[in-house]
Amino acid sequence: MEEKIYINSTDNIKLCALVSGISSDKIVLLCHGIRGDKDERGSFTALAKAIQQQGYSTIRIDFRGHGESTGIDYEMTISKEIEDIEIIIKFLKNEGYREIIILGASFGASIVSLVDYSQFDEVKALILWYGALDNYDALRNDNFLSQRNKKIALREGFYKSYNKAGKLFRFGIPLFEEIDKYKPKEKIQEIILPMLFVHGLADETVSYKISLELHNKCANSKLELIKNGSHTFDTNHQALEDAIDKTIEFIKEIFKR
What we know:
The protein is an alpha/beta fold. It has helices spanning 43-53, 78-94, 107-113, 147-156, 173-178, 184-187, 209-217, 237-255; strands spanning 3-8, 14-20, 26-31, 57-61, 99-105, 123-129, 158-162, 168-172, 195-200, 221-226.
């Protein structure tokens, strides 16, 4: 039900995407976390299928330097991932989609929060799955973007990191420098679109408390806390099902308005 396509960025990166064309004008864009890909450890695969069963199209992308997209991992930056999302939105608009919901997971949720939606009337709502929205505080540790690792990157050109599947990802110097520039925690509070926060109570990487805090600060938002839900929702089948069910409810509500 999904077709693999490549969408060109403004700097000649080929962004890989899996697209289902079930609906002619309603689509959900799924944006994965750092070191991940368009499957999001299986969570996006299951979510996309559930959305399609409701009659809506989906597109799940690999950010530059991830998955099957081109680009070098250690050249990936926050600003370039923002551009990736904007390019995808423009592509969907040109394809005739008039209602778009954007879902970002983990680091991808922070990227989603930093897009200027005043230029995109087609975007109707945002969904934040276990969002790293705490101004990257949770990622300033020795697995990710700590000062220690920054020193290694400055010395070697990048810092080597491995995801849950054991796949290598290299964090580059520009990314370390950008995390002090961007403030997703503040930026998301300026967005007036309807939002849904979905976070696992057992998240071992980013505490659910940041989603709770931002839900209370953001107008027109909803919050779903998932029992036994870990980061990426991939360690507990029931938790993933619950997250998907709550997400589908919100998507149907938005698209039926």
